[in-house]
Design a protein that fits this description.
The complex is a heterodimer of chains A (307) and B (434). Chain A is 66% helix and 4% strand. With 307 residues, chain A is mainly α. In chain A, a hairpin with a 2-residue loop joins strand 1 and strand 2. Chain A is flat and about 75 Å long. Chain B folds into 2 domains: 222 residues, Periplasmic binding protein-like II (D-Maltodextrin-Binding Protein, domain 2, 3-Layer(aba) Sandwich), CATH 3.40.190.10; 200 residues, Periplasmic binding protein-like II (D-Maltodextrin-Binding Protein, domain 2, 3-Layer(aba) Sandwich), CATH 3.40.190. In chain B, strand 6 and strand 7 form a beta hairpin. Helices cover 42% and strands 15% of the residues of chain B. Chain B has 16 helices and 16 strands. With 434 residues, chain B is an alpha/beta fold. In chain B, the strands form 4 sheets. In chain B, strands 1, 2, 3, 4, 5, 6, 7 and 14 form an 8-stranded mixed beta sheet that branches. In chain B, strands 10-11-9-12 form a 4-stranded mixed beta sheet. The chains are: A mainly alpha (307), B alpha/beta (434).
């Protein structure tokens, strides 16, 4: 009996399931096409990294461009390691990006906290002035900024003594410190902090908490999404940094990964090696994206900014 | 004085930032106050060869030989990637951090000398026997010297040309304009190629001026009047220049070239997507590898005023802010020994700047009967220096824009007139770059 009734019960349920509407089908197809638009260049990059230069171009007009066919090898990867100190560049970029993100989170959230929670005269004017700096593109400031960082002092630790040095060029700090304070990050934190009820501050103050305790123990623990958003939006430009390092870094052992791409543009461009190199430097970003996919999507959704 | 110096710095910085150096063979004011480039008897040398292990190793070998040849001076190498090298130099100049010795693309030499990035060189007899196009001069003084040059040429399959009934030209009897046009028409007629000639129109930056201004010169025009370098009027917009521009546009309208060619000309020729490739001596080695003895090296076409190619590749100079010019001069003199020049040329696959026996011993391919002799001959016979004027970076970008517009269909005469107005105005704004 049981064997005959069970299917009979399922059949009506299946019959009740609504048939897919045409607009759903169109939507799904559109999503697939959109996904292909973004995925295929990455597939092409990886597949081409396994092919000789001439084959990359001969395959261009066909589906083979996206398939590992023909003379497949890891020769381009070997060429990359011969031509570029990629491990050094990767370590530099990881260090520079991580330092920029950590210090950026601290400095920008503190600035935003002051503007959002503390009683300051002219807070709105200060915030407007900070936001106004977003209008100026970095490229226009780059050359004057080089001059400025070359004038800045630094305390050098030599064993147990301190020495005052002059100029920041050709250092790690010149790649980190100018990018810690970020107007957009301050703005994002400020908007998020504003959405947290001020009553929490007042209650904490009545319990004897100071401003820094309120910041550390109340506001920041409640600002997870804002922290994730700022972290991602700070990390990406730090990782992709190109113009600034070529202007301020002379020593090869201090260069970040993006500068390495330039190593392959010689008279006869090494296309396969470029693809191998870009595959290698894209991997950390892909891993990060997969690990923090939800935060990444939320950050874009909450800011309306392309990552 | 201070105002003029600041303006020079700004103008030169912008000019040098704009000009890209994607190509070695085709390829301002430093803070004059204060010194840079090393300390004491240790000096720093900058090169564009970070992505070119073979040439970098050859440069490093010279430096090592120099350091061990004496105990007074020590040279340290810092290598930069070529594509962003100019930006690195300009930024260093702006912050007074130029090295003592650096290499530079030949057409930048006058601008960087005018901008006081560079100091004149006193190398004495070290320049004897040097290929003329490898000596960077401005205002009668030598500011830079190169170990090698490159030469423009065309490449094709001998079998393809023969099958189409096309004569394979030689250095002594290059194609005439009519012969070239007929050859392209014959190739097009076979229907095998959508565009038989690859002029490299997908190239960027300095390539356009390096590659196409020699064609303009062969038509009888030029980028500027070379009598005093104060105006382009008549040279860049005269009848000969208009003929050049009309011919260039005609190549596109007749389907003889692509308005934007493929990204890799060597691969397109190898894959038989094009029949003739306009490139340079640097393409010979990879093409010879794939096409073998079927490869034909075609000298530049004579469009009426003789075959022309651009002269000058990467050259070495000494900066104005160098604190130890004696060390820099000593190094440059040392490095110009024929065997060292040849070793760099071999590593770079280029034409040695000297044809001395010591150089030819290292690379006999450029000597009599060698497989690359034709490039040395083309360079010696047909090289024309790009205008040695500080205005060159501006001229180059203006010419590039005009040529791109003409290929896209803009009216040749009015486009060239506009380019001339821009160049003349720039020269006047900078007080004639004097």
């Amino acid at each position: 009996m049981a064997t005959t009734t069970a299917p009979a019960r399922r059949q009506p349920a299946q019959a009740l399931r609504p048939a897919p509407k045409p607009r759903h089908i169109v939507g799904t197809v559109a999503k697939i096409v959109l996904a292909l638009v973004f995925v295929l260049p990455i597939v092409f990059m990886f597949v081409s990294s396994l092919k000789p230069d001439a084959q990359i171009f001969s395959d261009l007009g066909s589906i083979n461009a996206f398939l590992p066919t023909g003379h497949i090898s890891f020769a381009n990867y070997a060429g990359v390691f011969d031509r570029v100190p990629i491990v050094t560049f990767l370590m530099n970029s990881v260090g520079i990006s991580a330092a920029t993100v950590i210090l950026g989170l601290l400095v920008n959230s503190l600035a935003a906290f002051a503007l959002s929670r503390m009683r300051l005269r002219g807070k709105k004017i200060i915030l407007t002035a900070i936001i106004a700096t977003l209008i100026v593109p970095f490229e226009t400031l780059a050359l004057p900024l080089v001059w400025w960082v070359n004038q800045l002092p630094w305390l050098q630790v030599n064993g147990f003594s301190l020495a005052l040095t002059h100029g920041w060029l050709d250092t790690y700090r010149v790649q980190i410190i100018p990018f810690i304070a970020n107007a957009f990050s301050v703005y994002l934190f400020h908007q998020y902090f504003d959405s947290i009820p001020k009553e929490l501050d007042e209650a904490a103050r009545m319990d004897g908490a100071g401003w820094f305790q309120i910041y550390r123990k109340i506001i920041m623990p409640l600002s997870g999404p804002a922290i994730a958003t700022v972290a991602i939006l700070t990390f990406l430009p730090a990782w992709n940094s190109y113009l600034w390092p070529i202007m301020v870094v002379q020593s090869e052992n201090l260069r970040p990964v993006m500068v390495g791409v330039e190593y392959f543009y010689q008279l006869n461009v090494a296309w396969g090696q470029i693809m191998a190199y870009t595959t290698l430097i894209t991997l950390p970003i892909l891993v990060l994206f997969i690990a923090f996919q939800r935060s990444f999507v939320n950050s874009i959704a909450s800011t309306g900014v392309k990552g | 004085m201070k105002f003029h110096k600041s303006r020079r710095l700004l103008t030169a910085s912008i000019a040098a930032m704009v000009i890209a150096a994607p190509l070695a063979g085709c390829s301002g004011t430093a803070s004059a106050s204060g010194g840079s480039g090393g300390s004491g008897n240790s000096i720093t040398l900058w090169t564009h060869n970070a992505g070119n292990p073979a040439e970098l190793a050859a440069d490093q070998k010279i430096v090592s030989a120099f350091n061990s040849s004496q105990s007074k001076y020590k040279v340290t190498v810092q290598a930069f990637p070529q594509a962003s090298y100019n930006q690195s130099v300009v930024a260093a100049a702006a912050s007074g951090k130029l090295p003592c010795v650096l290499d530079m693309d030949a057409p930048n030499v006058p601008n960087w000398a005018w901008a006081k990035y560079l100091a004149p060189l006193d190398l004495g007899t070290s320049l004897k026997g040097q290929l003329p196009s490898t000596i960077g001069k401005w205002n009668g003084k030598v500011y830079a010297v190169g170990y090698y040059d490159v030469a423009l040429a065309m490449f094709a399959r001998k079998s393809v040309l023969t099958a189409a009934g096309i004569r394979i030209p030689t250095i002594d009897t290059p194609w005439t304009q009519d012969e070239f046009n007929q050859s392209l028409a014959a190739l097009k007629k076979t229907g095998k190629w959508a565009a038989p000639l690859d002029l490299g129109t997908s190239g960027t930056g300095e390539w356009w001026t390096y590659a196409y201004s020699p064609l303009l010169q062969s038509f009888g025009g030029d980028l500027i009047n070379r009598t005093d370098y104060q105006s382009a009027d008549g040279a860049l917009n005269g009848a000969n220049a208009v003929n050049w521009a009309t011919w260039m546009r005609g190549l596109v309208t007749q389907g003889l070239i692509a308005q934007k060619s493929g990204a890799d000309a060597n691969a397109d020729l190898t894959n038989n997507k094009t029949a003739i490739e306009y490139s340079g001596s640097w393409a010979a080695a990879p093409l010879s590898k794939t096409l073998g003895k079927d490869l034909a090296v075609i000298p530049p076409v004579n469009f009426g005023s003789g075959p022309k190619i651009g002269g000058g590749s990467w050259e070495w100079g000494m900066t104005n802010t160098c604190e130890n010019k004696a060390a820099a001069t000593a190094y440059l003199k040392f490095s110009l020994q024929p065997q060292y020049q040849a070793s760099v040329a071999v590593a770079a696959g280029t034409i040695p700047a000297t044809s001395s026996p010591a150089a030819l011993k290292l690379d006999p391919s450029y000597g009599p009967g060698g497989s690359n002799e034709i490039f040395a001959q083309i360079s010696r016979k047909y090289a024309e220096l790009r205008p040695p004027t500080p205005a060159y970076p501006f001229i180059s970008t203006t010419f590039t824009t005009a040529a791109q517009n003409i290929l896209a269909g803009a009216d040749p005469k009015s486009t060239l007139d506009q380019a001339v107005r821009g160049i003349d105005a720039n020269i006047k704004t900078n007080n004639g770059y004097k």
